[in-house]
Every structure is written in C-alpha cells, then in structure tokens.
Amino acid sequence: MKKSKALLGILAFFLVGCTDSFQTEEPLVSYPIRQEAIQLIYDTTYRYPDGYYFDMHDEITQSYTLYQVKDFSNSYELCTDDELEAIRLEQEDNDRRVVNGQLITYTQNERYFEFVRELDVSGSIGNTGLTEPGFARIYKCSYVNRVGVDRNDFNGYGGIMNADLSEQVVREFIQYTNFFTFWWPQTAKTLQFSSEENNDEFIHTLLLGLRTNQGTDRCDLIQLLDWRWTVNKSNGEMERISYLVDQFEADLVNGVPVICE
Fold first, then answer.
1. Residue 139, exposed/middle/buried by CB under 10 A (0-12, 13-18, 19+)?
2. Residue 188 · residue 40 · CB < 8 Å
3. Which one has a higher pLDDT value, 96 or 170?
4. How many structural domains comprise the chain?
5. What is the domain extent for residue 86?
6. Distance CA 61, CA 150 (A)
7. 88, 118 in Cβ contact below 8 A?
8. Helix (H) or strand (E) holding 144
9. What is the largest CA-CA distance in the chain?
C-alpha cells in the first residue's frame, strides 16, 4: 500500500461487490446515529477510532510503500517459517513488480519477515524524489496461514490463526488486515470496533462507514456495515461475514455533511 505522511489521514478502503452481497441483521456494535457517522465519513483528518492497532512505520517522514507479499494470483498473502524461502519469495515478488528496487536489509519478528528496498520511483507521477523506501512483509505460517483465502471477497474463509489465541492477538490481526483490504467501488472508514468471546470462538467486529458517489447532482449512498470475524478456539479457523445495518443518502453542503431527505 502506497502512502505518504500528508495523505495518511485520508486513507480509504474500497468495497468489492454490491449491496446484495450483504446480509442484514441487528448489529453487534453499538453504531452511531446517522449524523455522527457522516461526520466521521466525510472528515478528511479522521483516521481510525481510538485504540485501533497499527503496525506501520510512522517514524518515517517521507513517502513509503508497505504491503504483504501475495501469491501469483494476488488472492492471498503468502507465509513461510523458513528464512531462505522468505528471501526467495520476496525476490521473486520484487522481480515481477512494476516498481522494484535494491534490497537494503531484512528483519523478522514472531509475525513476519520484513524486507526493505530502495524503490525506483523516478517514473511515478507525483513523486518528488527518485527513490523511496519500500517494505515488503511475508507472514510466518506459525502466526497465520492465509492460503486459500479470497481477498476480493469480504465473506467466507479467512485463513488459519496459528499463534497462541487471545482477544488481543485476534483483534490486532483483524485490524491490521483491514488496513490492507481494498473495498471497491465504495470508499470506507472504520468507525468503531468490538471484541467478544464465548466458549468456542473469538469474535471481532469492525463497523465500516461506506460512501458511494452516485454521480453529478446526486447525494452519496451511505452504508453502515458490520464486518464480523470469528476465530475458532480449537483450530484457529477464521470466518468473515458482513452485515448491512443501515443505509441512507448524504452529501457535503458548503463543506458540512448533511443527510439527504
């Protein structure tokens, strides 16, 4: 994901599919009233709710690229616990990327291998420099295995969490994954999140505020969506399901968000 410090506050996600793909159910998250929701949805300085988990490089003051290395079909993120295999997979990924660069160093932690490259961005529109840092991560399978996941679908199988399960581990993975989830054609923001636990599973729900531009002289379509993840305690299997909890229209009038009648 390409981002700059100036644009970090207005990063948006995009929703694949259409309203017919959503199920409808009373939300698990206590969602805000419509006016409160659109204040956040239209606020270009709003990032995420308080307490949201980040694992980025905010210490870097210039633009940089950060992403998870994926399979050839771009469907799911790769994983390995073998350092040499991780080096090979990242090199192959770099070789087939349009914007690639020289490997500077790599590190690892209990979750992933991270490779740092100096990317050649001299031909990219909007870049003021010739190079910028690029960070590529490969999950460790001992942390999570996403093989077989369809990243273009917001429902269904979400992979296997192999780390020692806890509310925090589950929450941090789902919120981190949400950062790399591209929803289209709607832009979206995370308004709230909620965690639950029962005897069989962990449940983590993100409340997303989706905004669809419906064309000139028309109000935007606003949808509030619960994106609910469940993690089976016995085997770590993750499932995703989305619930439409509210839908209405809104617009900016003289810079102020208003609900359309």
1. buried
2. no
3. 170
4. 1
5. 2-259
6. 33
7. no
8. strand 144-145
9. 60
Q: What is the pLDDT of residues 71-114, one digit of tens each?
A: 988 889 999 999 999 999 999 999 988 878 889 999 999 999 99
- Nearest one of 10, 80, 1, 87 to 42, comparing CA atoms: 10
Predicted confidence at residue 129, as pLDDT, reads: 58
Question: Percentage of the chain surpassing pLDDT 90?
Answer: 63
Q: Which of 22-26, 224-228, 231-235 has the highest mean pLDDT?
A: 231-235
10 within 8 A of 188, measured Cβ to Cβ: no
Residue 28 has a pLDDT of: 46
Instruction: Kindly calculate the radius of gyration of the chain based on its CA atoms and give it in whole angstroms.
Output: 19
Q: Which residues contact 99 (CB under 8 A, 6 or more apart)?
A: 65, 119, 120, 121, 124, 134
Q: Following DSSP, what letter does each residue of 194-247 receive, concatenated?
A: EEEE-SSEEEEEEEEEEEE---TTSPEEEEEEEEEEEEETTT-EEEEEEEEEEE
